[in-house]
Write a structure and sequence with these properties.
By secondary structure, the chain is of the alpha/beta class. The chain is built from 4 helices and 10 strands, in the order E-H-E-E-E-H-E-H-E-E-E-E-H-E. The chain is globular and about 40 Å long. The N and C termini lie close together (about 10 Å).
Length: about 140
Amino acid sequence: MILISHRGNTTGPNPDRENHPDYIDNAISLGFNVEVDVWIINNTINLGHDSPQYKITHQWLNNRYNNLWIHCKNIKAIEWFNSIKEFNYFWHEEDTLTLTSQGYIWAYPGKQSIKHSIAVMPEIKNDDVSLCLGVCSDYIKNYKK
């Protein structure tokens, strides 16, 4: 099963640290992939959920290529990632599901079970993840066997 830390969280939400580059690196060092929120503002790449908070570089993204699930937070971000096609990225709001650029089904909480999907925050609605390919959660350590 693919285990994805939501914004770097591994044992519960931590809004003061979420999407911080060091926090993301910590989750990766523990063996998890990480869902990150990315904004492109004035040709700069930024991490942050509700707004751009942490400026990063293309090299920073490249160095973590295999571990990132990139949630594009504005139109410029989706346009930029779509133009380079190097990363696993997606856009969603409250859709039942979306497809990532690498063809993964990213399913909104409460919309499981969808065979071979990534269950996002399944603990919110007590979703059945038995058919899932992976899980994205603030409590991802709970899914590690």
